[in-house]
Design brief:
single chain; about 220 residues; alpha/beta; five-stranded parallel sheet; 5 strands
């Protein structure tokens, strides 16, 4: 975010390559809800906005992924506006690149709700993508999961098999409700497991816990944090 916006409570929202109907919705959002809106290049939006909507209908798959990655690197939240006809694997690649939510509904009410959810760090993912993610989890390389478990154990972090899987999914940026869906369990059960993970690691904040696990995964064998 640019220095001129620092110290304010305004939540600046950007739109990249919006179609005419989305551009009109953005204008209405600014006029009716007093939410400051910007339309421009990725470079400009990355310096001025906390949240950017990418109109994926106007972007090639390569542009969609690269734009998401660039914004994510600048700690900008990204929401993708889709038609509902995109390939699930493409949507999955966008989530891996840093997309926090995917929206098929582009009405004024839906866009405003998207902004509110982003402010609360809540993600919205379509059921088709969650089903794909569930299948990917089932097909997840046993070697990768075992390697993660061994790294945890080597560093004195003794988690249960379910807690290891939850920790692994947390490193993917998934929220509790999405983890619960993928593991076919209840969200409150996931919260209990995460509470135990906090206790076992001695780490209290989710962002710090995720950072710890990511660093652990990439440490050389025999090295602990």
């Amino acid at each position: 975010m640019s220095a001129e916006n620092e110290g304010t409570d305004m939540f600046y929202v950007g739109f990249y390559q919006p179609r005419d109907s989305v551009r009109e919705t953005a204008t209405q959002m600014e006029e009716k809800h007093d939410i400051p809106v910007m339309v421009g290049s990725i470079e400009m939006l990355a310096t001025c906005c906390e949240l950017v909507f990418l109109d994926l209908e106007n972007l090639s798959p390569t542009e969609g992924v690269s734009s998401t990655e660039e914004l994510h690197k600048q700690n900008v939240k990204v929401i993708g506006l889709v038609s509902g006809e995109e390939e699930p694997l493409y949507l999955l690649s966008l989530v891996k690149a840093g997309l926090m939510s995917i929206m098929e509904e582009h009405s004024l009410q839906a866009i405003v709700e998207g902004v509110n959810n982003a402010q609360k760090n809540h993600s919205i993912l379509p059921i088709t993508l969650l089903q794909l993610l569930r299948n990917k989890i089932v097909e997840m390389s046993q070697v990768e999961e075992e390697a993660f478990a061994h790294r945890l154990l080597a560093c004195g972090v003794n988690l249960t098999p379910k807690q290891i899987k939850i920790a692994f999914l947390m490193t993917k940026g998934l929220k509790n409700r999405d983890i619960a869906y993928l593991l076919d369990t209840k969200e409150r059960t996931v919260k209990v497991h995460i509470s135990h993970i906090y206790t076992k690691t001695g780490i209290k904040r989710r962002v710090n816990l995720i950072h710890y696990f990511k660093e652990l995964k990439h440490k050389k064998k025999g090295a602990c944090l």
